[in-house]
Amino acid sequence: MSNILNRPKIVEKAKEVRIANDIIRNTGSLFQQVLRAWENSVSQVWNNDTAAVLAEFGTDAVEIFRISAETAKFLEALKPGSTTAGRALMRPFTAHPDGTITLD
Question: Are the C-beta atoms of 38 and 68 separated by less than 8 Å?
Fold first, then answer.
């Protein structure tokens, strides 16, 4: 029979398990949050008066679209096909040197 007073503490292992589980859960949650934010932004642009939204972006439009495209690449690299629904909403557009975007 082992003496309970001499057993190693299991607190550290429990802490490591908790940390690992938290990180695993947070990683999945982070992906979902970024995907939802990207999908929401895409939907807001393309499911409303797109020309008016683009006009409100003004000279920030090209940067906004660049960041959106980079975000979509990131999401696709992590989970192929994750941006398919959002990309289906998009229509042809032209980016101008002054930073504005117009619909084709």
Answer: yes
